[in-house]
Automatic annotation (TrEMBL):
Keyword tags: Heme, Iron, Membrane, Metal-binding, Monooxygenase, Oxidoreductase, Transmembrane, Transmembrane helix
Entry cofactors: heme
GO molecular function: heme binding; iron ion binding; monooxygenase activity; oxidoreductase activity, acting on paired donors, with incorporation or reduction of molecular oxygen
SUPFAM superfamilies membership: Cytochrome P450
Pfam families registered for this protein in UniProt: p450 (PF00067)
Transmembrane segments: 6-26, 207-228
The keyword Membrane appears for this protein: yes
InterPro entries on file: Cyt_P450 (IPR001128), Cyt_P450_CS (IPR017972), Cyt_P450_E_grp-I (IPR002401), Cyt_P450_sf (IPR036396)
PROSITE patterns xrefs: CYTOCHROME_P450
Protein name per UniProt: Cytochrome P450
Length: 503
């Protein structure tokens, strides 16, 4: 999270303010209801800092929001600095926001670091709702992430996953760092699908994108005090992200220029950059031509939104399977039953792995990669459950808390993939107790691209290898601590010992 760095700079000032207002708090402690307005309930607030002290300092905000919501309810109002927030923690209120009032809540806030990364909010993920976002989202859904396009990348996926299996085999019986290996594989698939052959700048690009993604997960103090422009100027994170952004921009422009100068081979599948250049050339004369910056912003989104998410899911699934050996046995038996006759795993029969699909869903329920979705902002005043929500309120949907709520889930904290067998509940954005990809207009458009990057590697890892923890650690002892960021992954790398079942 970016905040702790800024936070440390800010601590002195906050401490001073804290002392200044302390006596007021004692006498004027607001109640859990916001008494002089019809805002939703929320915890008492300090002048100037609002609820920052109760929330942002936490390394895992989705946990602290859940605890607060247990006291103040599923629609909770917070003020973080100058900015009003609502935190949503129930299926019912999530449906109000993401379905009934989706049009009111489909904006994204204008945040300091994402703005730099996203070419002034002109990508898909951080773009404000409007004609530009609609145009890019259409390109994304119809041209870049369509089922046909995803299918055209099948051989890339199979090659990259097969390389993964080979490097694991080479380390049979030894401890392998699955976190590094899975991330490299997913990155490899995205890079080849987006840019074609591996770029000469691959390593630099990869670490730059990684650096940016890590920084984007945090909350910046400057974003909580938009009226104090000095905070933006003082931000070290801003200077850092500007530098990385310039590096990434140079690499991406290089890649665009390369693509434009080389004639595409007839009959060869297009990569995403080629598809974008074609759209750019076809729309040169249109009212909204696609600029080079737009293309760079879109491609960056594919890396930022598509790489850590998919690899994070694979790693959470493997972690849960190692922790739950009976489920591991059952899912391995299914993979064997489907692929034993063939003797190898490919994508043609992945759809037959019904239990594996339930395992993935159950993992996404307990470990949604974006536990608070991406931040939204209201475009106008609105009433939810009788409460007033002012315009420009930032909205956080705690899908992590909803996915663990015993109101909707039996034995909510247990890993039980069976609950999804013969269940109509799916992650397509219509079951509001299960929203790992969000819902409504801003729902993830990359499910079709992301799932094969999860299912194929898992099927291969389970078909070829048995897995155990190193150092005689018992299965149930596997550490599951999370690390907060744009994607919430494991805090500690997943290191396991593979033994070959069949090659
Ligand atoms: C299993 C992997 C993935 C998960 C769990 C995931 C999850 C999400 C979530 C929760 C959101 C925010 C939705 C909201 O605000 O309501 C999102 C947005 C987005 N995702 Fe994904 N995602 C995954 C894979 C991908 C992939 C592979 C791509 C593209 C290659 C992608 C592209 C995007 C984009 C462009 C957005 C922004 C949509 C918008 O604001 O209009 N995602 N994703």
């Amino acid at each position: 999270m970016e905040l702790p760095n800024n936070f440390s700079n800010f601590t002195l000032m906050l401490s001073f303010l804290f002392l200044l207002v302390l006596f007021k708090i004692v006498t004027r402690r607001s109640t859990s209801k916001n008494s002089n307005s019809n805002l939703p309930p929320g915890p008492w607030r300090l002048p100037f800092i609002g609820n920052i002290h109760q929330t942002i300092g936490s390394p895992l905000p989705h946990h602290s929001f859940k605890t607060l919501a247990q006291k103040y309810g599923p629609l909770m109002y917070l003020k973080l600095g100058e900015v009003p927030y609502i935190i949503v923690s129930s299926r019912e209120v999530a449906k109000e926001i993401l379905k009934t009032h989706d049009l009111t809540f489909c904006d994204r806030p204008n945040l300091m670091l994402p703005k730099i990364f996203s070419y002034n909010n002109t990508d898909i993920l951080f773009s404000a709702y409007g004609e530009h976002w609609r145009q890019l989202r259409r390109i994304c859904v119809i041209e870049l992430l369509s089922a046909k396009r995803v299918q055209s990348f099948r051989s890339i996926r199979e090659e990259e996953v097969s390389d993964l299996v080979k490097s694991i085999s080479a380390n049979e019986g030894l401890v392998v760092n699955l976190s590094h290996m899975i991330f490299s594989m997913t990155y490899g698939i995205t890079a080849r699908a987006a840019l074609g052959k591996r770029s000469k700048h691959q390593q630099l690009f990869r670490s730059a994108i990684n650096g940016i993604v890590n920084m984007l997960g945090g909350v910046c103090i400057a974003d909580l005090y938009p009226s104090i422009k000095m905070l933006q100027r003082m931000s070290r994170a801003k200077t850092k992200i500007e530098k990385i952004h310039r590096e990434v921009d140079t690499i991406m422009q290089d890649i665009i220029n390369d693509h434009k100068s080389i004639h595409k081979e007839e009959g060869k599948d297009e990569n995403l950059m080629e598809a974008l250049i074609k759209i750019q050339q076809e729309n040169e004369e249109s009212q909204h031509p696609l600029t080079d910056d737009n293309m760079k912003a879109i491609i960056q989104d594919m890396f930022a939104a598509g790489t850590e998410t998919s690899s994070g899911v694979v790693l959470w699934v493997m972690s849960e399977l190692v922790k739950n050996p009976t489920v591991m046995e059952k899912v391995q038996a299914e993979v064997s039953e489907v692929f034993d006759k063939k003797g190898y795993v490919d994508e043609t029969q992945i759809h037959e792995l019904i239990y594996l699909k339930s395992v993935i869903k159950e993992t996404l329920r307990l470990h949604p990669i974006a536990p608070l979705l991406a931040p939204r902002e209201s475009r106008e005043r609105c009433k939810i459950n009788g409460y007033e929500i002012p315009a420009k309120t930032r909205v956080i949907i705690n899908v992590w808390a909803i996915g663990r709520d015993p109101k909707y889930w039996v034995e909510a904290e247990s890993f039980k993939p069976e609950r999804f067998l013969n269940s109509p509940i799916d992650f397509r954005g219509t079951d509001f107790e299960f929203l790992p990809f969000g819902a409504g207009r801003r729902m993830c458009p990359g499910i079709g691209f992301g799932l094969p990057n999860v299912e194929l590697p898992l099927a291969q890892l389970l078909y070829h290898f048995d897995w155990k923890l190193p150092n005689e650690i018992k299965n149930e002892g596997l550490d599951m601590t999370e690390s907060f960021g744009l994607a919430v992954g494991r805090k500690h790398d997943l290191c396991l010992i593979p033994t070959t079942r069949r090659l």
